[in-house]
Amino acid sequence: MGEFTVNKEKVLQALSTVEEPDLKKDLVTLGMIQDVEIGVNQVRFTVVLTTPACPLKELIRRNCVAAIHDLISPDIEVIINLTANVTTSRQTGPLLPGVKNVIAVASGKGGVGKSTVTANLAMALHRSGAKVGIIDADIFGPSIPVMFGVEHMQPTITPKNGKNLINPIRQYGIKLMSIGFLTPPESAVVWRGPMASQALKQFFADTDWGDLDYLLIDLPPGTSDIHITLVQTVPVAGAVIVTTPQKVALADAIKGLSMFRQPQINVPVLGVVENMAWFTPEELPDHQYHIFGKGGGQLLADKFDVPLLGQVPLVQGIREAGDDGRPAFMNQNEMVNDAFRNASEALARQVAIRNAEKVKTQVVEMDS
Ligand SMILES: Nc1ncnc2c1ncn2[C@@H]1O[C@H](COP(=O)(O)OP(=O)(O)OP(=O)(O)O)[C@@H](O)[C@H]1O
Questions:
Q1: Does the Cβ of 276 fall within 6 Å of ligand 1?
Q2: Which region, left, alpha or beta, applies to residue 326 given φ > 0 means left and ψ of -120 to 50 means alpha?
Q3: Whose CA is nearest to atom 2 of ligand 1?
Q4: C-beta 126 within 6 A of ligand 1
Q5: Distance 113 CA to ligand 1 centre (A)
Q6: Residue 327, ligand 1, Cβ within 6 A
Q7: CATH fold of 8-84, please?
Q8: Terminal C-alpha separation, the chain
Q9: Best residue for ligand 1 mutational test, from 105, 107, 109, 115 (most atoms within 8 Å of Cβ)
Q10: How far does the signal peptide extend, from start to end residue (predicted)?
Q11: Which of 151, 177, 216, 337 has its CA 20 to 30 A from that of 229?
Q12: Do 352 and 50 contact (CB within 8 A), yes or no?
């Protein structure tokens, strides 16, 4: 075994050569290294990632080990504890004080699977260790309560600091609020725009969300008053656009995406999720049938210069799981789980990159 001396400074010096691949700065400058401890032929430290769903964690771990071995000694045992502290670019304010990132999930056309994608992205983020909530703001078809099997539940109310606060429904580790909870499922209520906007504001102002890393907002399809209420009420970290590869869906997705880019709205588009990208029968898992066309999600992403966050196949089990009130991510289907995990990691990564730009998100001021 070679001769070497190791101390905290040397370890930090070595780690300051390791770059966070997305944020393009070194781990020490980014404040991601903590709790350095020196033992006999051993160093231990913690790397605080920007999200527990970080797809680069193994690469970062390997690069840290390599830096210590190359710059200090190959004989040192390197023990790394990976943790995460999800970043935010929100200023703390009276609304949603413990919520780090509000993410809008939107689509141009209805029925492309926006709620299904929202539910499963939430489950995948939760599985990675993040604290997640969903607001179902889809006035035309609030399907989140059904997808989580809580359509007959009613949120309770607790007085807190002189205010009556609504407790979100908690299911499978996710906190949920839905326009659907405000009316019995049997009685079809036609929500007028102003009523729905008022309900959404209540979900922000009068709901006890506690601490959340990601609050996903399942928006109605197309563009509506609800979209405007959202961006005017809380700072939105970014939007995810869900589309199918079909031409008619893409045409509408372009309109949906363009709305977020309008100068007076100006919400960053974090990327595109292509749902129903191909059909795969359960008994032929290696077969892909492009029944709605091929490559449409990538085309949309390229057109607007945003990432394609993921492609989700059309699988009978995804529909069945939604109807059974347990998002498909909870079942052990590798193909389905990979699709949603990859998309959730890509989303978390875009949020971290966006937050590192340090431009605070602000509510949008508009003349009404
Ligand atoms: N990848 C998929 N594979 C199989 N079925 C799917 C998939 N994605 C969505 N579905 C099914 O398609 C239907 C529509 O999905 P969903 O309700 O998520 O769409 P949406 O875009 O939210 O609709 P809305 O217009 O109500 O907002 C549901 O029955 C759902 O289970």
A1: yes
A2: beta
A3: 314
A4: no
A5: 3
A6: no
A7: GMP Synthetase; Chain A, domain 3 (3.30.300)
A8: 73
A9: 115
A10: none
A11: 151
A12: yes
Output phi, psi for 351, to 5 deg: -65, -45
> When comparing pLDDT for 282 and 335, which is higher?
335
CATH class of 99-356: alpha beta
Nearest protein Cα to ligand 1, atom 23: 111
At residue 340, the pLDDT reads 97
Query: Per-residue confidence at 332, pLDDT binned at 50, 70, 90?
Result: confident
Tell me whether residue 108 is annotated as binding: yes
- Alpha-carbon distances, residue 267 vs 258, 362, 363 (angstroms): 10, 9, 10
pLDDT at residue 155 is higher than 50: yes
Of ligand 1's listed atoms, the one at least distance from the Cα of 320 is 31
Nearest to 48 by CA among 39, 66, 65, 60: 60
Distance of alpha carbon 175 from alpha carbon 184, whole angstroms:
20
| Ligand 1: residue whose CA is nearest its atom 31 | 319
Helix (H), strand (E) at residue 159: strand 157-160
**Does the CB atom of residue 108 touch ligand 1 within 6 A?**
no
State how far the Cα of 188 lies from the Cα of 198, in Å rounded to an integer: 18
Nearest by Cα to 312 from 351, 272, 256: 272
Q: How far does the centroid of ligand 1 lie from the alpha carbon of residue 319, in Å?
A: 7
N residues, the chain? 368
How is residue 106 written in tokens? 């939107």
Q: Would you kindly state where each structural domain of the chain is located, as residue ranges?
A: 8-84, 99-356
